[in-house]
Write a structure and sequence with these properties.
By secondary structure, the protein is an alpha/beta fold. It is built from three helices and three strands. A three-stranded parallel beta sheet has the order 2-1-3, sandwiched between helices.
């Protein structure tokens, strides 16, 4: 199982995620490094790259419910922490929460 955060996540939240993974060795932590200034597409592609390493993409056609699956034995990314406002350098990521909706192609927001 995995958790993913971006490098600009608020410091206290980053530390909480690191602590959680330290206390639960079966949980992996991936950090997406963002170097500003960069385009929205760069942020999305870097995020999809990390999710693509762990999760199988959901089929986009039809209304069938797809059970999210991981590519690795350790599981899949189940939590992606995305701040709407990056703590440093004060960048607004308003497009990301809508991009990663609960029924996205990577299955990181589903209820199980």
């Amino acid at each position: 199982m995995g958790l993913t955060i971006v490098s600009t996540t608020y410091g206290a939240v980053q530390q909480m995620m690191k602590f959680y993974c330290d206390m639960n060795p079966e949980i992996n932590l991936d950090i997406i490094n963002l170097n500003f200034p960069c385009s929205h597409q760069t942020i999305i592609s870097q995020t999809e790259e990390v999710l693509g390493e762990w999760n199988e993409a959901n089929p986009t056609e039809g209304d069938d419910q797809h059970t999210p699956k991981g590519k690795k034995e350790e599981g899949r990314v189940r939590l992606l922490v995305v701040d709407s406002i990056a703590s440093n350098p004060g960048y607004v990521l308003s497009f990301l929460p809508s991009f990663f909706s609960s029924r996205n192609k990577w299955g990181t927001g589903t209820d199980e």
